[in-house]
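Instructor's aside before we start: the two examples that follow are unrelated to each other. I chose them only because their records fit on one page, so don't look for a connection. First example below.
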Amino acid sequence: LQVLESGGGLAQSGGSLRLACTVLGFTGPGDHDYGIGWFRQAPQKRREGVSAFHTEDETTWYSNSVKGRFTISRDKAKKTVYLQMNNLTPEDTATYFCALLWGDPLTMASVWATEGRQMDWWGQGTPVTVSS
């Protein structure tokens, strides 16, 4: 199984970017539900949870710093979770990671809120730079 991010890059303040997190390695019927979390880490700062989604009930979570600006969504057929980031600011500059958790939504809520330390699979990260 792999978790693959894409979509990072450069944006101006007030601009938008869309990140994608694709889960690879699921085949055939019997897929299990899972949670996908987006995290970011800027230089000299701790990793923080940005947003998360659970496939079981499509629950979503957002940090206060991105609420109202970022939207998480899923394309079920593509096994891809998107993070639409609007009204970007330089404070959003970071490397963004997505990660997968084998667990129910309640567990996902807990794990995502604690920097994702117990997430099961991590992507390699994609950099986002927002210029002022």
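Example two begins here.
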Amino acid sequence: VQLQASGGGLVQTGGSLRLSCAASGRTFSSYTMGWFRQAPGKEREFVAAISWRGSSTYYADSVRGRFTISRDNAKNTLYLQMNSLKPEDTAVYYCAAGRYDGRYGSSWYIGVSSALMYDYWGQGTQVTVSS
């Protein structure tokens, strides 16, 4: 599957942005999807994940309550609605696709928050939040 992220930009503190990730191929609906981000000089970090049916979601503590991940399998598109943005949210945001193998059982969040679970990555979209 090929992924194309878009929707980034420059926004003031407290503003909102919605990122999109368009996927090619007919197997999008079978993948767990995630958003990660990488700020300058920092390692890539997990932001949010959503199960293949969209019934389960998981967020990093730093974005929980402000960001919402969703997907539209009919449109092969993943979204990240970002509200109440802060300067520390400034980063390149990447979407990713992978298949969770169930190794953590009910602790699904352990697997989906690791970049190692994802096989396919988008090119990234820059989000800059000014103070």
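The mean pLDDT is 95.
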